[in-house]
């Protein structure tokens, strides 16, 4: 697996995301209520705290209190380290139970975009929008493009810089951030 995601500002963290399926899956899981850079840089910190190995089976097998301690740091791996640590452990347990702990097996060999979206949506912590963004990220940044992925992930499959799937540089990160700020301002204007 080799991707083109450049999101953290840290070459080592980006390299891990682009070469380790579990890292990019955890980064996407953590991408809520914190800046994208923070969320996607956290898998490298977690790997370091786990003795240099990022392994779904090992994380799933730890006592929940130990996982929470890994996430609390310092520094914390998320704004809500306790709950996100539990969610990461649930994700890893799902990978162990359904994919023998192999994160890449979630998308390996899938020939249909809807099937891939359904698989990702079934992961703990992945609602409809997050699942669509992650499938679009797999397609755009990793070349995982089963037939129908574009339709399955609308609107995230378009060329508009709107999500983590579109980040390849500091400039595209700024574009995505600007898009999100405009969207939030538009929603606030409609509500007000």
Detailed description of the structure:
By secondary structure, the protein is mainly α. The chain has one domain (11-191): Hypothetical protein, domain 2 (Endonuclease III, domain 1, Orthogonal Bundle). Helices cover 61% and strands 0% of the residues. Helix 1 (11-19) packs across helix 3 (36-49) and helix 7 crosses helix 8. The N and C termini lie far apart (46 Å). The mean pLDDT is 94.
Features:
Endonuclease III, domain 1; mainly alpha; globular; 10 helices; 192 residues
Question: Topology, pairings included?
Answer:
Blueprint: H1 11-19, H2 21-30, H3 36-49, H4 56-61, H5 64-72, H6 81-99, H7 113-121, H8 128-142, H9 149-152, H10 170-191
Helix pairs in contact: 1-2, 1-3, 2-3, 5-6, 7-8
Mean pLDDT: 94
Which topology does CATH recognise? Endonuclease III, domain 1
Kindly name the structural category: mainly alpha
Taken in chain order, the helices and strands follow as HHHHHHHHHH
CATH superfamily: Hypothetical protein, domain 2
The count of strands amounts to 0
How large, in whole angstroms, is the Cα Rg?
A: 16 Å
Stretches with pLDDT under 50, minimum 5 residues: none
Percent range for β-strand residues = under 5%
Q: What percent of residues adopt helix (DSSP H or I)?
A: 55-70%
Domain module count: 1
Quickly give the CATH architecture.
Orthogonal Bundle
The number of helical runs is 10
């Amino acid at each position: 697996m080799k991707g083109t995601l450049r999101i953290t500002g840290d070459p080592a963290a980006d390299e891990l995301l682009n070469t380790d399926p579990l890292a990019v899956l955890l980064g996407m899981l953590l991408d809520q209520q914190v800046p994208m850079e923070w969320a996607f840089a956290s898998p490298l910190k977690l790997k370091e705290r786990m003795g240099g190995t990022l392994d779904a089976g090992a994380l799933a097998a730890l006592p929940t209190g130990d996982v929470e301690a890994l996430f609390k740091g310092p520094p914390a791996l998320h704004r809500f380290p306790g709950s996100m640590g539990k969610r990461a452990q649930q994700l890893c347990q799902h990978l162990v139970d359904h994919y023998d702990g192999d994160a890449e097996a979630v998308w390996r060999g899938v020939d249909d975009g809807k099937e891939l979206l359904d698989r990702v949506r079934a992961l703990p912590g992945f609602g409809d929008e997050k699942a669509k963004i992650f499938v679009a990220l797999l397609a755009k940044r990793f070349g995982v493009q089963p037939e129908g992925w574009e339709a399955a992930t609308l609107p995230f499959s378009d060329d508009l810089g709107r999500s983590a799937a579109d980040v390849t540089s500091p400039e595209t990160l700024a574009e995505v951030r600007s898009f999100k700020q405009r969207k939030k301002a538009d929603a606030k204007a409609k509500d007000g």
